[in-house]
Design a protein that fits this description.
Helices cover about 45% and strands about 20% of the residues. It is an alpha/beta fold and about 325 residues long. The strands form three sheets. A five-stranded parallel beta sheet has the order 5-2-1-6-7, sandwiched between helices. A four-stranded mixed beta sheet has the order 4-3-10-9. A three-stranded mixed beta sheet has the order 8-11-12, with helices on both faces. α6 packs antiparallel against α8. The longest helix is centred in the middle third of the chain and has 23 residues.
Length: about 325
């Protein structure tokens, strides 16, 4: 791509995350296509991409889509050889991967027809395991680090609803270098939207670990004890359990070479021990609502890394067992 602002961007998924960030790119005039499931493609064709904020509902009509195979991600229409010709009309300059970890394998199968030699894949998944899987499938050179922060949900009628103002995208080369392609990517993702802060990071691995510690700590606490933070800390031993979970997650990150910053730990402890707080996590909500669980990426991989680093994590292991049982029961 000659200019990051003219890049062809494929957003994989048009749910809460992909729909929100994709809408901001559309609003900025970017060339955006969504890779979605058949039902979502039909809804977008019929109703457009609807985004609700506190300022009202914005509708994007005529959204371009490519369709995943029947039953979900797995066999996109028009998929071909991932090592195909770089001049192919199916190759995209940027792939913004906005699916949950439990949908990653199927999404990668769908992506094979749209990733060319010069494609940059920007995953917005939780944890770090997806980086290894994507590099193994498409090559190290095509994958950069990425993460997002947004409070959004997909309503039953297909509207992407922003639950709290403000969101952010961070991305960077995994080795911390500032290359020409990452500069072009940065130009392409700078939308000018007041609701999105886009940031080129020179320490994206540390950023990913910091987010993982936060997500895993909250996810383990709320799913293991079973409730929002306010109820947990009001129960006997609740505060001690919260602090012990945080300590386990921080210990794994530290052993991996990415010790959490003192301020980040302070904020995390405050969040997970706040009296009366209604705070829960997506992992907890998925558990109680019977949805597919992202426990392998958020908890399971952290437990595995802890074992490899010889870091004891009894609370994480217990939560992983509970989540594994729940996942098996609904498989």
């Amino acid at each position: 791509m000659d200019d990051g602002r003219s890049a062809r961007i494929l957003v994989v998924g048009a749910g809460a995350v992909g729909g929100w960030f994709g809408s901001r790119l559309l609003a900025a005039g970017r060339d955006v296509t969504f890779l979605v499931r058949p039902g979502r493609a039909d809804a977008l064709a019929r109703d457009g991409l609807r985004v609700a904020t506190r300022d009202g509902v914005e509708t994007f009509a005529g959204v371009r889509t490519v369709v995943a195979g029947e039953g979900g991600f797995g066999g996109a229409t028009g998929a071909g050889d991932s090592d195909g010709d770089s001049d192919s009309d199916s190759d995209f300059d940027v792939v913004l991967l906005a699916v949950k970890g439990c949908a990653l394998e199927a999404a990668m199968r769908d992506l094979e027809g749209f990733v060319g030699p010069a494609t940059t894949i920007v995953p917005l998944l939780n944890g770090l395991r997806h980086l290894e899987l994507l590099a193994g499938r498409f090559g190290d050179s095509r994958v950069v680090g990425g993460l997002c922060v947004v409070a959004a949900q997909l309503d039953d009628d297909g509207t992407v609803r922003l639950l709290a103002p403000g969101s952010s995208l961070s991305y960077g080369e995994l080795d911390g270098s500032v290359t020409e392609r990452i500069r072009m990517l940065d130009a392409g993702l700078q939308t000018g939207s007041p609701g999105v802060r886009a940031r080129l990071s020179e320490h994206i691995r540390a950023d990913l670990w910091a987010k993982w510690v936060f997500l895993a700590s909250g996810g383990v606490l709320t799913t293991l004890v079973g409730g929002p933070v306010g109820e947990i800390v009001a129960a006997p031993g609740g505060v001690d359990t919260a602090l012990a979970v945080i300590a386990e997650c921080a210990a794994v990150s530290t052993a991996a070479g990415f010790p959490p910053q003192a301020k980040a730990l302070e904020n995390l402890r405050a969040t997970l021990t706040e009296p009366g707080s209604a705070f829960t996590t997506s992992l907890y909500r998925d558990l109680v609502q019977g949805r597919r669980l992202e426990h392998e990426a958020i908890v399971g991989d952290l437990v595995a890394r802890a074992g490899a680093l010889d870091v004891p994590v009894p609370l994480l292991t217990a939560a992983y067992a509970r989540l594994g049982l729940a996942a098996a029961a609904r498989a």
